[in-house]
Design goal:
This protein has 2 helices and 3 strands; from the N terminus they run ββααβ. The chain has about 70 residues and is of the alpha+beta class. Helix 1 runs antiparallel to helix 2. It is elongated. The chain starts with a strand and ends in a 7-residue tail after the last strand. The relative contact order is 0.26. The structure holds zinc ion (ZN). The site of zinc ion has 8 residues, from loops. Zinc ion binds next to loops.
């Protein structure tokens, strides 16, 4: 599931704290748990791979973009 996350932190271009936005992927736990139950636990292996991938490479999604000047952090 893709969600837009907003955070306030200093922008090097604006020289002041501005709101930054980024797309983030969230694990859809209900979907994964339902699939795990429906596939008699087989989907659990996929879920473990997804969790391992996120631990190694982060949650994914885009970088932080300043909503005032548009610079990418
Ligand atoms: Zn900015």
């Amino acid at each position: 599931m893709l969600v837009v996350e907003n955070k306030l932190f200093p922008c090097p271009h604006c020289n002041r704290p501005t709101i930054h936005a980024a797309n983030r992927h969230r694990i859809h736990w209900v979907k994964h748990l339902t699939l795990t139950l429906c596939t008699c636990g087989c989907w659990g292996f996929v879920l473990v791979l997804v969790i391992l991938w996120r631990m190694l490479f982060g949650a994914g999604g885009s970088k932080w973009v300043c909503t005032v000047c548009g610079s990418v952090k």
